[in-house]
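cron nightly-structures :: item 1 of 1
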Amino acid sequence: MSGGANAKNRKERVTLQARIRTLVVHDSPFMLKLLAQILKQMANFDLVGTATNGGQALRQVSALSPDLVLMDVHLPGLNGIQAIQYIKQRAHTPVVVIISSDARPITKELAQKAGADGFLNKEEDLQHRLISVLENLFGPSAATRSAVTDSSFHKQAA
């Protein structure tokens, strides 16, 4: 089964659960705290762990089996894109949303190719946009949705 199919199945299972186990991966203590505060405001999201680099993220995914991983791109050692590639090879993959200030088209393309389920630019009104993305991914009709991003991974019609 492909990583995309696993992620879709995971989303379908998660939407039926009461709580969404979330791992936050970022090398900034400020961003870890901010993301934890945003998750705390949301009714169905439990922060089960944090990591500050890609290697820790892989260990935490194995140990905690989160439903959702919020991950930065630029991490010490193993970066977020590399970590996603490893995470998406697992049998039961979590939904992975990149949260980064690096919103260059090449970064978004690499995130999509690695298997990220969404990409969110952390500039300007992060809280509102993150809540919207998580509602799209895990809300009542989430099982019918595909990747979510500030500017969709899918090509816009010209």
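cron nightly-structures :: done
Confidence is low (pLDDT under 50) at residues 11-17, 151-158.
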